[in-house]
């Protein structure tokens, strides 16, 4: 599993209805995209208390071939054409779990980044994080949750989809989910390594 996200920060007075319309008319195009575990079409808005207006889709890829096909194909080129080329953040997947609300449509999402300190052995940090993720994924309202790591910056990433419109405030950055494409979601936890 590979996690990927790009953030398109928009002007404070940007009409976020443009993004909503874009997702409403184009979001379904990835509903059967090969190699895609899931794509959460995320936004956050200043009028809802976010620090910025932002379109920030989050992907979990079940295969690197699917990710490559998207990045070098027409889908991502539409983003580049309309908004410029964003930085694509990428993390190696560590764990994925369906939550108690797995059959619900997600309405919000959270992203929490945690640095791995230089004094902490990376293997120990990952083992602890995977155990914590297994517990946290069982919380009420969780649709699905993923844990990943960026070994370039030594950062853990916890991403959670929530059934409720308002994600818990203590879970990191919060987003609204406009649409979820999940053609290979059921395979995301398959073959998971035990730590």
Account of the 3D structure:
A hairpin with a 4-residue loop joins strand 8 and strand 9. The model has no long low-confidence stretch (mean pLDDT 94). The protein has one domain: Alpha-Beta Plaits (2-Layer Sandwich), CATH 3.30.70. The chain contains 4 helices and 10 strands, in the order E-E-H-E-E-E-H-H-E-E-H-E-E-E. Strands 1-5-3-10-7-9-8-6 form an 8-stranded antiparallel β-barrel. It has 195 residues and is of the alpha+beta class.
Strand content: 35-45%
Widest sheet: strand order? 1-5-3-10-7-9-8-6
- Tell me how many strands there are: 10
Structural class designation: alpha+beta
In whole angstroms, the N-to-C terminal distance is 16 Å
Largest sheet: 8 strands, antiparallel, barrel
Detail the topology: elements first, then pairings.
Elements: E1 2-6, E2 8-10, H1 17-26, E3 36-44, E4 53-55, E5 58-61, H2 64-71, H3 74-83, E6 88-98, E7 108-115, H4 122-136, E8 142-150, E9 155-162, E10 173-181
Antiparallel strand pairs: 1-5, 1-6, 2-4, 3-4, 3-5, 3-10, 6-8, 7-9, 7-10, 8-9
């Amino acid at each position: 599993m590979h996690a990927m996200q790009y953030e398109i920060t928009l002007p404070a007075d940007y009409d976020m209805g443009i993004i909503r319309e874009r997702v409403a008319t184009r979001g379904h195009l990835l509903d059967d995209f090969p190699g895609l575990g899931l794509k959460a079409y995320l936004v956050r808005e200043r009028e809802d208390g976010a620090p910025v207006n932002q379109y920030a889709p989050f992907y979990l890829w079940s295969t690197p071939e699917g990710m490559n096909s998207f990045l070098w194909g027409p889908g991502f080129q539409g983003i580049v054409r309309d908004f410029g080329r964003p930085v694509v953040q990428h993390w190696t997947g560590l764990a994925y779990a369906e939550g108690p609300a797995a059959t619900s449509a997600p309405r919000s999402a959270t992203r929490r980044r945690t640095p791995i300190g230089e004094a902490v052995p990376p293997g120990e940090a990952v083992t602890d994080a995977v155990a914590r993720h297994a517990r946290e994924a069982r919380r009420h309202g969780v649709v699905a949750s993923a844990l990943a790591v960026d070994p370039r910056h030594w950062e853990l990433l916890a991403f959670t989809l929530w059934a409720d419109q308002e994600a818990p405030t203590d879970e990191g950055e919060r987003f609204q989910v406009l649409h979820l494409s999940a053609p290979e979601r059921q395979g995301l936890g398959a073959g998971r390594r035990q730590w």
